[in-house]
Amino acid sequence: MNDKEIEKIQRYIYKNSYSKTGEELIQYIKNKNAKVSFTQEEWNKLLIPACSGMLPEVFEWLLNNVAKINENGFDIVTMIIDSQEFRLEFLKMRIKLLKILLSRIEKKYYTKTINFALMKACWFNNIYVVEFLLKIGANVTFLFDDGKTPYNCAKKYGERFSDYSLYNYIKNYLKENDLKDTAIFYSKKDFMGYSIYKI
Question: Which of 37, 35, 26, 92 is nearest to 64 (CA)?
């Protein structure tokens, strides 16, 4: 299978992430594989739309059956937390994906992986995801090889977008060791009825 063909399958999965069930998309993947027999590399590429389309059922099926992750899962974390996301319901889906991934990470990599996920969540201001990661033991002052910490990333976000909500949230957490419920940041509703981020 050439790159264009696998990209076509990726686009189909992503575009239909809202209109079709996980079961339907899994069957679509099975049907395609029956015709062409995906290579290991092609199976792994299907993780991309499963993450960006926020499809935990498809993601879990791929990991259970055919796709493989790197030891620390950093590449998958980057697929899951790849952008700003202001809808609470979709952030909950990101957390579902993270839980599936973290259940498959070797113990020796677990701490670094959750800290890497925290850094990505801080960079993109995913406050709800930050709360989840702090609850399971992520460290906002963990120093990566490039000199960055999740705390630094939260500050950078504030500087870039003049929104210090996450930075202040973390600062308060470090001071009081108390995790406030971040759902309060998502009190506004959009025209589709989603709970969205509001400063």
Answer: 26
Model confidence pLDDT, tens digit, residues 18-35: 899 999 999 999 999 999
Annotate 43-107 with three-state secondary structure: HHHCHHHHHHCCCHHHHHHHHHHCCCCCCCCHHHHHHHCCCCCCEHHHHHHHHHHHHHHHCCCCH
DSSP 21: -
As to burial, measured by CB atoms within 10 angstroms (0-12 exposed, 13-18 middle, 19+ buried), residue 81 is buried
Strand partners of residue 189: 195
Which residues is 195 bridged to in the sheet? 189
pLDDT of 80-110, one tens digit each?
Answer: 998 999 999 999 999 999 999 999 998 999 9
